[in-house]
Design a protein that fits this description.
Helices cover 28% and strands 34% of the residues. The chain has 167 residues and is of the alpha+beta class. The chain has one domain (4-166). A hairpin with a 4-residue loop joins strand 6 and strand 7 (113-119). Helix 2 (55-71) packs antiparallel against helix 3 (147-166). The chain is globular, with a radius of gyration of 16 Å.
Length: 167
């Protein structure tokens, strides 16, 4: 397996006054949050998918992140999630692929990097003409209820993509 990296982006929308407290809590938990506006805080986490970083460790990391996001519910009104894997790859056309039951948006990244983003919509096809909108790679929730399923979906995305890479 080459140098691959899993990225998970969490954008928190908070009420006025709670963003600074959320940033403080994130920093106390070892994260480096970014304040995008008075009501949006971005948290980006990276997991390096190297030989020595066993998939179980990465899946545990994803699960733990999901639990932390849920535990911080007092600080956010809504949360949006994105997940993608970056790897070295050849030239590709931007396309949607269905791998098992997971829909993936494959597109060229910077240089020789290939980006494979988790798509949250079903069925796995873009009906509109023109470019595939990035919005299909964002999942937004306003309660804790859907968080567990969303992070399980991210874990399945990782498991399936890594299984196809290792074949």
């Amino acid at each position: 397996m080459g140098a691959m990296k899993l990225n998970i982006l969490v954008d928190f929308t908070s009420e006025l006054g709670k963003t600074s407290r959320l940033v403080k809590v994130l920093r106390e938990n070892g994260f480096s949050p970014q304040l995008l506006s008075y009501d949006v805080v971005r948290l980006k986490t990276e997991f390096h998918l190297a030989e020595n970083n066993v998939i179980r460790n990465i899946l545990n990391g994803v699960h733990n992140l999901g639990e932390l996001v849920a535990s911080w519910k007092g600080f956010w009104e809504a949360v949006c999630l994105e997940a993608w894997i970056e790897e070295k790859g050849g030239k590709v056309q931007n396309t949607l692929l269905e791998v098992d039951d997971i829909c993936v948006y494959v597109r060229r990244g910077k240089g020789v990097i290939l980006t494979k983003k988790l798509v949250w919509t079903k069925p796995c096809k873009w009906m509109g003409g023109g470019p595939i909108p990035e919005s299909i790679t964002r999942k937004c929730l306003d309660s804790v209820e859907g968080l567990n399923a969303a992070f399980n979906h991210i874990a399945r995305f990782i498991t399936i993509l890594l299984a196809t890479v290792q074949k």
